[in-house]
């Protein structure tokens, strides 16, 4: 990848990439605005507006942590606060599929260069075809989820749809879980993954399938057994003729001058309190289900579907969710240049009584009492795609997805780099 210095808006503090920091969830003394859960809509913009460009900024300022010359989709942070990004091949080849970011604007293929592109005839379980995301688990292992679908094709390559785990320190490959080809039907498209290390004998992985039918997958990390559930149900399928909004403009799919509609199914995923949360991309809907239902082979599809909870719409299309250890689930609200969040646990930081749930306090909030709130809204948030929590910070990458050729009239590429990843203080660690 290119390495060059980039100009940043003056109010952005450039993050010095510290190689090692103690885990300490108090606000860093050099960062004044660690108030993520205090409404702060007047940080920089007068209201009522006095100028056509007075859009409200919500939340604390963002710290830029990495600058990419190409648009990334996936992001992970390791215990040294080093960032990893994925450059998937959904709209064409990319030289490196997964990179580590040694500095603000430099990148190196990770774990190495030779794994980045399967060679013709190579066993597709041993190399990258089209990695969508990289995530850190609670045992500090890094996981890559590969859709196995080569650029321009619709079906996963044999043995290509898979999860691979790696040691974060040595970069050594540890294990590969190939999604069996019996589950590839109707263009299964593995998109995002979260790992629960303490479920079952050796943990389980949960994966969203963003195909037009949509589904969720669960993989038993002890045995490799894989289950595909909720296939082509209303809770994984996109809205009919969905039209989203981006930077104030409605978004369609375009083939030259021919209009169609996004059909992306289940996409963002997060684990919180024993539940799997996911959003359907071409919709403003999200859902949850107890993880125990998704991993239970003995249930019928109807029983699994009956266990799905629909708390409410979330007010935005999204391509990414994540969760912290204080019960919050974060939503990359791409239609609003924002990150939203929901408290699934009552906490002293919650200052409003809602329904019968008192302010402050403790305990689980019932899904019907969830309130979607705004963590941060900023013009800099140009389609946050993946997010990860580490050491008090929420990190996310941005990629301007809606400005890519498939979503622009005449298929122009309206994306303009650099594509900056940011972090914002949330004062929590990752959900475990
Ligand atoms: C860790 O947090 C404490 C307050 O809880 C603070 O006094 C100390 O300076 C912090 N250390 C670092 C390295 O940030
Ligand atoms: C919002 O405006 C009020 C009144 O000017 C001010 O007291 C307050 O500090 C402002 N809040 C923020 C977060 O800037
Ligand atoms: C993490 O940081 C420690 C302390 O600086 C260093 O010894 C170690 O090599 C780093 N690990 C990686 C994988 O960068
Ligand atoms: C690249 O990494 C993979 C996974 O760890 C490993 O199998 C392979 O031998 C490595 N290749 C080189 C040239 O180091
Ligand atoms: C998914 O379900 C819808 C609604 O029942 C149906 O119209 C569609 O054909 C199904 N898709 C597949 C791939 O089976
Ligand atoms: C776009 O339209 C052209 C011309 O009608 C057609 O040949 C092509 O298959 C279409 N592409 C897609 C991805 O639908
Ligand atoms: C992981 O599974 C364990 C055991 O069921 C559960 O207690 C825990 O809440 C789950 N973790 C998350 C983040 O949901």
UniProtKB/TrEMBL annotation:
InterPro entries documented for this protein: 6-blade_b-propeller_TolB-like (IPR011042), MRJP/yellow-related (IPR017996)
Subcellular location: Secreted
Family matches, as Gene3D superfamilies: TolB, C-terminal domain (2.120.10.30)
Pfam family, one: MRJP
Record's keyword terms, sorted: Secreted, Signal
Predominant place of localization: secreted
GO CC list: extracellular region
Signal peptide positions (record): 1-20
Family: Belongs to the major royal jelly protein family.
Protein name per Swiss-Prot or TrEMBL: Major royal jelly protein
Originating species: Melanomma pulvis-pyrius CBS 109.77
